[in-house]
Specification:
One of its GO terms (biological process) is coenzyme A biosynthetic process. By secondary structure, this protein is α+β, with helices and mostly antiparallel strands. It contains four helices and eleven strands.
């Protein structure tokens, strides 16, 4: 077994140990603190890059979409009635959006959910891809304009990052922006909900907080919904 495979296996074992002692998640389709029933899941799909870093698969949304056109996102979407659980939602959406075969993904953890500005419960699902070469990207042109990979540790570093202070119902929070240059030279701005999810995933994987003040908005957990402007 090579070093890349060993690192991924160690990461999988770490998350499985954590899952064994965590309290069970709230039932699908229900929230812990409100009556919201809208639910979505995203796939934080990690693999070992040629440079030895853990990388995450990201997309640029189609410019023709009515919601957040051209924004960077994680593969994922809203739960459908036929979905058995959050993992099923995340894997199905990744298959539909970028052609990622679910059989290639080893799901190792489901992180704490976030409630976005529209009252949708967003559940991050962490999956490991042992061989990136087995993945043949097939973006759905109606939804995805581009697919790229970024080092997960980027979202713990205070480099090429900027922030804006926003306010919601008297509560001030920080909106984070990461400027990332992909291998092809394209510069992507990763911000708002996607940036927040990646900060959370990176903190869980590397077991350390970011090197900057995060200051999350309270509506992440409140379920009340916030003004749609920040797109958190």
């Amino acid at each position: 077994m090579g070093s890349a495979e060993l690192r991924l296996q160690t990461l999988a074992q770490h998350f499985r140990l954590e899952e064994s002692v965590k309290p069970p998640p709230p039932p699908n389709g229900s929230a812990t603190s409100d009556s919201t029933t809208k639910r979505a899941a995203v796939l934080v799909c990690l693999f070992k890059g040629d440079d030895g870093e853990l990388r995450v698969i990201l997309t640029k949304r189609s410019s023709s979409l009515s919601s957040s056109p051209g924004d960077v996102a994680l593969p994922g979407g809203k739960r459908e009635e036929a979905d058995a659980d959050d993992v099923h939602t995340a894997l199905r959406e990744a298959k539909e959006e970028i052609g990622l075969d679910p059989s290639l993904v080893n799901v190792v953890s489901v992180l704490d959910h976030i409630v976005n500005s529209h009252g949708v419960i967003v559940v991050p699902v962490i999956g490991l891809l042992s061989d990136i070469k087995a993945f043949s990207p097939a973006p759905n042109a109606a939804e995805v304009e581009a697919i790229f990979y970024a080092p997960l540790e980027t979202f713990l570093k205070d480099e090429k990052r900027r922030e804006e202070e926003r306010e919601w119902m008297g509560d001030k929070y920080l909106l984070h922006y990461f400027d990332f240059e992909a291998d092809d030279g394209e510069v992507y701005v990763i911000w708002a909900l996607t940036a927040g999810l990646l900060i959370s995933a990176a903190s869980a994987v590397y077991q350390r907080p970011p090197a900057f003040l995060e200051r999350r908005p309270k509506f992440w957990k409140s379920g009340q919904g916030a003004p749609p402007c920040p797109r958190f």
